[in-house]
Design a protein that fits this description.
Layout: H1 2-47, H2 57-65, H3 69-81, E1 84-85, E2 96-99, E3 109-112, H4 113-116, E4 127-132, E5 137-142, E6 164-167, E7 170-173, E8 182-186, E9 191-195, E10 200-202, E11 205-206, E12 209-210, E13 214-219, E14 222-228, E15 239-249, E16 252-261, E17 269-276, E18 281-288, H5 292-303, E19 307-308
Antiparallel strand pairs: 1-3, 2-3, 4-5, 6-7, 8-9, 9-19, 10-13, 11-12, 13-14, 14-18, 15-16, 16-17, 17-18
Helix pairs in contact: 2-3
């Protein structure tokens, strides 16, 4: 009996020892894990890059609106159609037109032109050339579709479009075949250009000597003058400006200006003018109402071939 009691006591002692060792091991191991975690955590704070969450594009714009209803509703249109905001100058990429709501604090966004229907057509007569200050380019558009232009000053413009046609129900530029045009270079004015073969180059002759600072392109009763001058000629004194478009002439910024007679005796008289101030070149023509469209077309086509020679 005494022997059995001793054995039980020994077993209990062994169990207590094992339990104590096991608990100690767990405590030590746990402490080590906590220490390692703490150390790694400190290292992570030092070496792990800070990643900033990127907010949704439209959420950022919404914050700028605040409680302004006009701004909020304009943003709603942008979000629903996945439109992007025009740049800080109010300009849109090529192929897009600026749009907005009819309220002052509206966002200005860019809409693909085909989505507006600007380029849709049924016949050639539906199409016209229009200059947009939104992207500072010329476009072939449906003349019956009105759109607000952007109040943006264009420092540079895209290439001139002379004529538009309807092709596959879309207004597109009519490509001019100038491969058979003649090239003419005038040394005094420093102008090199191409012109149709049925237009002839001419110079003024006064009192048996030639006037060298200008020359003409003539066909029948139509005439275009190219003049080297430091000031504009006074042909527009009795006329009013009815249109102007920005244009690049061999890299130089200028305007195509259109004037019409102010009075009853000259109201059917029209005048086209481009003045390239850096080169002191005035390119201009006079016509009547019946020939305005035809002359404007050839006027622009010839202008697009201008090169300045030094």
């Amino acid at each position: 009996m005494k022997k059995e009691s001793l054995q039980i006591t020994t077993v209990k002692t062994l169990l207590a020892i094992l339990l104590f060792v096991g608990m100690g091991t767990i405590i030590i191991r746990g402490g080590y894990i906590i220490w390692e975690y703490s150390k790694n955590g400190e290292n992570n704070k030092m070496t792990k890059p800070i990643v900033q969450e990127t907010e949704n594009y439209y959420d950022v714009l919404e914050k700028k609106c605040g409680s302004d209803n006009c701004c909020v509703f304009s943003l709603k249109t942008m979000r629903e159609n996945n439109y992007k905001e025009a740049d800080k100058n109010g300009k849109c990429p090529e192929g897009f037109n600026r749009d907005m709501m009819a309220c002052i604090t509206s966002y200005h966004w860019c809409v693909p032109m085909e989505e507006i229907g600007w380029e849709s057509c049924d016949k050639d007569n539906d199409c016209e050339v229009r200059f947009s200050h939104c992207d500072c380019r010329y476009h072939c558009v449906n003349k019956n579709i009105e759109a607000d232009d952007c109040a943006v000053e264009c420092d540079e413009t895209g290439p001139i479009i002379s004529e538009c046609i309807c092709e596959n129900n879309k207004c597109v530029e009519k490509k001019s075949n100038i491969s058979n045009w003649q090239t003419y270079q005038h040394e005094i004015t420093g102008v090199k250009l191409q012109h149709p073969r049925d237009w002839q180059v001419a110079q003024d002759q006064s009192e048996n000597y030639m006037i060298f600072n200008k020359f003409y392109l003539r066909r029948d009763s139509q005439e275009i003058e190219i003049l080297k001058t430091s000031s504009l000629s006074p042909e527009t004194m009795d006329m009013k400006s009815i249109g102007t478009h920005k244009v690049l002439v061999d890299g130089y910024a200028s305007n195509i200006e259109l004037f019409q007679g102010k009075f009853d005796n000259n109201k059917d008289k029209y005048y086209l003018r481009v003045f390239i101030s850096e080169k002191n070149i005035c390119y201009h023509a006079e016509t009547d109402k019946d020939n305005l469209e035809e002359l404007s077309l050839i006027f622009n086509q010839i202008l697009s071939t201008f090169k300045f020679i030094d």
